[in-house]
Amino acid sequence: MPDKASIQTELDLIAALERGDVISQSALSKRLEVSVGLVNALLRRVIRKGLVKTRKAPYRRWAYYLTPKGLAEKSRLVAKYLEASLGFFRKARDEYGQIFMALRRAGVDRAVLVGRGELAEIALLAAREHEIRIVGLLDAEMNEGSFLGIPVLRGLHDIDRTAGLVITASRHPQEAYDRLMGASAERIIHAPPLLRVVVAPQERGAKASNGSDV
């Protein structure tokens, strides 16, 4: 079964082609934030399925437009994406809830989220349910001073050592985890199983948690 990300990519592609504008694969690559190679493969697939037709345009370019079948497929993908999104939301909220329950059992009532985005928003909701106060969002690349009302922190030196660290970086969670491990030998880092963060054997139990005591 396609995952949420693949459904969203195909849906974004169809939406981008819906107006029938002349558009290059390079422009589509930037708009969808995927490689030109993937755009090419996706275009071949939707054309083969009869969802999209093409016509030649000046300067060796192509215009793409949706067929009636493509418009119907867009509606189907919207419904499928919403279904996948709800399933993802429930799973993420439950896994972050497990992390925050573990923090409460350990006597910790404050946490810092590591990484902005959709997961950070879900984690905020789960934290409120378990009476954990989110005291900051660690993200050195953010220009804004706050995220949904919580302060944005630039480095570990800004974080109270009593606060838990919870990874919410969905794009590069392993990199976020590795950076934290390299910067601190003492802090316990939490990551939900859905992020598939790999913990080195010698670090298990001492520095990382996946929502339960490890």
Can you tell me about this structure?
With 214 residues, the chain is an alpha/beta fold. The chain has helices at residues 4-17, 25-32, 36-48, 68-105, 118-129, 173-183, and strands spanning 52-57, 61-66, 110-114, 133-138, 146-147, 150-153, 164-167, 189-190, 208-209. Strand 5 (146-147) and strand 6 form a beta hairpin. Helix 2 packs across helix 3 and helix 4 crosses helix 5 (118-129).
Radius of gyration: 21 Å
Shape: elongated
Distance between the termini: 31 Å
Instruction: Provide the β-strand percentage band.
Output: 15-25%
Structural class call reads alpha/beta
Oligomer: single chain
SSE layout and pairings?
Elements: H1 4-17, H2 25-32, H3 36-48, E1 52-57, E2 61-66, H4 68-105, E3 110-114, H5 118-129, E4 133-138, E5 146-147, E6 150-153, E7 164-167, H6 173-183, E8 189-190, E9 208-209
Parallel strand pairs: 3-4, 3-7, 4-6, 7-8, 8-9
Antiparallel strand pairs: 1-2, 5-6
